[in-house]
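Task: sequence in, structure out. Protein: LPS biosynthesis protein.
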Amino acid sequence: MDIKYFFSIFLRRLPYFLLVSCLISAIAIIIAKALPPAYESQMKLIVESPQIPTELATPTISTPAMEQLQIVEQRLMTRNNLLDIAARFKLFDVEDEMTPDRTVEAMLKRTTIRKSANHNEAALMTIAFEAATPEKAASVVNEYLTLIQKEDVESRTGRATQTLEFFEQEVTRLSEELARKSADILKFKLDNSDALPDSLDFRLGQQTRAQERLAQINRDISQFTQQREKLMVIFAQTGKVRDVTPKELSRDEEWLEKLRADLANALAVYSPDNPNVKVLESRIRQTENAIARRKSAENPVANTNVDSTGNMMLDIQLSEMDTRLAILEDQRDATEELLDNIVTTLSKTPANAIRLDELELDLGNLQTQYTAAVNRFGSASTGERIELLSQGQKISVIEPPALPDEPTKPNRMLIAGGGTFIGIMAGIVLVVALEMLNRSIRRPEDLVAKLGITPLATIPYIRSRQQMIAQRSGKIIVILAILVGVPSLIYAVHTYYLPLDLLMENLLSKLGI
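Result:
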């Protein structure tokens, strides 16, 4: 096929080309004229660093800048906020016919949010909104700014206050725990004052001295028993009494001095109400009474006439020995009781030491936690003060919302020019498609190609004048009907049914675009 043939075909199909291209161009021009203007107002925000150096005072809120912007965006673009803004500013003329879901979707489409936070650069956020009038666009962006600033302040101060309250409660709780644990340790020491590990050395020494004293008492008892038996034997053999007792009895006095020394040592460790102190005082009193009784018993012996009878001397010496034996037995019982008490306390000391270590370890841990909580409470108090004075990290406005002077949408020249270009291309495609679908034989080449017949000559078909007039009239009527009817139909739909912009928006929404 040569160029002349294609040109002749294009001329024959010219009405179809003109029809399609003009129709599409007219629709594009009508849509460009019908689309309402859209005005865009925008603002620019920045995340400022804390004004007080973090080396001097650590703020409570330390959220990364980009994360803070993302949180603000999510809280701003909530369903309730968008529905409230759309209702208060009456952004949609067909608001009564729009469902809440469609309203939210429309608000999200008309809102543009861009964030940028490159390395070593400040975090920026640009928020823009499109509306039918400049006033509505600026009002919505101003409302966005109000919500962002309110949310930023409430979030920062709220978190700082909650942090301060938490550590205040922690300090109070740990203080009560410390007081309770200290009271437990004090009560444990009072209940086990005679079996604590800090007095172990003293009780071991006391045990050694008591054991030595018990051995000495046993030896004295044995000695006095032997002297009494010897006295009885001598009296039975001779009928006379000899003084077989020592002239001086200093052991009781020495024992009394030892007891008093033990009492002084015990008072240095225990309180006067301690059971060990009470036992030592009782033993001292018993020893003092024994010495007094011995001395009172010696006086009658000294004043006895040497010429008295043997029975009286025997009775006196036996009485004296029985008294001293009784005293020694009392001392032995008291010493054995003291030893039993000491052994009992010594057996309790390891368990008490373990329990006391546990209590003191718990107290140390609580003290560490309390100190850390107090330090954090101080930091939280400083952080709250920083946030209340707006000296911490915050979102600030660097470009406030402005009233737009010119609409940003639609680009009517682009729509009209694009529609014209699409119409021309559609006309060309229609012409080519019609020619490809027409399989009839119209040229000698078609006879040769399809039937294998080579014609000698070709005679063109000549129409009569009436046929030509009828054919041209029919084409003109069809073209006029399309050119007039289609725009009229489009105008009627736009005026009486639904504006073309909303109709296109609904169509694109259904198509998922």
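The mean pLDDT is 78.
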